[in-house]
Specification:
By secondary structure, the protein is mainly beta. It is built from six helices and 21 strands. Helices cover about 15% and strands about 30% of the residues. It has a seven-stranded mixed β-sheet with strand order 11-10-12-13-20-19-16, sandwiched between helices. The two termini are about 30 Å apart.
Length: about 425
């Protein structure tokens, strides 16, 4: 009978812990703060979760360090998620860490009440030498408290402060507790800035859709763009709403100036001073405007927008009685207002109507109703959120019914027994 050496998977962790206990650590070597738990401050327990941690060194010399998140998982073990950073004296460094917020009960709220630890460890030749600082955290420890998302709820992120016509999805049907038309309730994480997006796709794993409204594209870094595209390829639904002013996406011919160029159509045409009345069938159920002279700028797309995109939403137009085909006239009739393409297992959709621009114009009342300039628009008997109907339609066409929860790469994850 053969005998062999019995292996203990946690022995390296035990040795590192002993070294940490032996090495003196001054409490003020590094100040540790939790900036944000979850992208958009929304967390669904059981899904990959992103922590944004800020570490500020009080040392007199630069050091190599490891930022580590230690959290007790459902098995009772301590899971360690970490990334290495370089710390310079007095310079705050913000670093994303990706782990899994454990499911502790049937309610997501209790999971966010779980206390875990973020620590900063000094490295020498790739080995941990001493503890530089630590912070105990829960869902309320960030600059803004985290919002719990139940496993039975969907989650949509909005890059920008626009409404995008999504309020109806987050409003439960009376007596049901969820939105009857979607068979679930949807949480909407609004106000995400381009700079607040994570640098790895795992941070977006809880989102079914990301809607980019009126946020500046210039704040999007290359790693963040790669993470957004990786998330889309794994089944995400990315919707880009083109603004009525300017061309920040380069749709008019310079799309290569943005890091999301691989996910943009090649051809589009800007149309100024388009009567809003002609767009009403695509915007809301009402056919009446308070100001019939209201106008806006939009983007339309050819039949073949390029880069794999195909028409999704058209402006109303006349139908040929002989062929049954939509007739595209010299004006807006039958023109393509939104396009979509498959992107891996997900979709990218580009909407040519700035529904948020129309909604903002209504909300702030900056323009009178007399028809001067673009005027103030208002669809009778419709809530202003209905101006975002193209976005809602896009979501209903592309909503995925499965969760995209994948394993965190092994390089980010260790498990400490106990």
């Amino acid at each position: 009978m053969k005998t062999g050496t019995r292996r203990f998977p946690g022995w390296r962790t035990l040795v590192a812990t002993a070294l940490l206990a032996a090495a003196p650590a001054r409490a003020g070597d590094v100040d540790v703060a939790l900036v944000r738990m979850g992208v958009g401050n929304h967390v669904r327990p059981g899904d990959p979760t992103a922590l944004l941690v800020r570490a500020t060194s009080n040392l007199t010399a630069p050091v190599q360090a490891r930022v580590e998140w230690a959290v007790r998982n459902a098995d009772g073990d301590t899971a360690l998620y970490s990334r290495d950073v370089a710390l310079a004296p007095g310079a705050p460094v913000e670093q994303w860490i990706y782990g899994v917020a454990p499911i502790t009960s049937a309610s997501a709220v209790s999971s966010l009440e779980l206390v875990s630890t973020v620590r900063v460890l000094q490295l020498a030749d790739g080995r941990v030498t001493r503890l530089l600082g630590e912070r105990r955290i829960d869902g309320n420890a960030g600059e803004e408290p985290a919002v719990p998302v139940e496993s039975t709820e969907a989650l949509i992120g909005v890059v920008g402060d626009g409404r995008a016509g999504l309020s109806a999805l987050a409003t439960p049907t009376p007596t049901l507790g969820y939105c009857a038309s979607m068979n679930e309730l949807t949480k909407v994480a609004r106000g995400i800035t381009a700079g607040a997006l994570p640098d790895r796709w795992q941070g977006l794993a809880s989102f079914e859709s990301i809607i980019w409204t009126n946020a500046p594209v210039q704040g999007l870094g290359a790693e963040q763009a790669r993470a957004l595209l990786d998330w889309t390829q794994r089944g995400g639904n990315l919707v880009i709403v083109l603004p009525e002013s300017g061309d920040p996406w380069g749709i008019g011919g310079r799309r290569d100036r943005t890091p999301l160029a691989p996910a943009l159509p090649e051809h589009a045409e800007r149309r100024d001073a388009v009567p809003v009345e002609s767009l009403l069938p695509a915007l809301c159920r009402s056919g009446v405007l308070r100001n019939e002279k209201a106008r806006t700028a939009i983007w339309t797309f050819p039949e073949e927008p390029g880069n794999g995109f195909t028409p999704l939403i058209r402006a109303p137009g006349r139908v040929d009685s002989r062929t049954g085909n939509l007739v595209t006239g010299s004006g807006l009739d039958g023109r393509v207002l939104a396009v979509r393409r498959p992107f891996g297992f997900g979709f990218v959709t580009v909407v040519g109507i700035d529904v948020d621009g129309l909604d903002r114009r209504l909300q702030d009342g900056a323009v009178d109703e007399g028809g001067r300039g673009v005027g103030r628009i208002h669809a009778q008997q419709e809530r202003s959120e209905r101006l975002g109907a193209p976005c809602t339609l896009v979501l209903r066409h592309t909503r995925l019914r499965h969760r995209r929860v994948e394993a965190i790469p092994d390089v980010l994850h260790q498990v400490q027994s106990g």
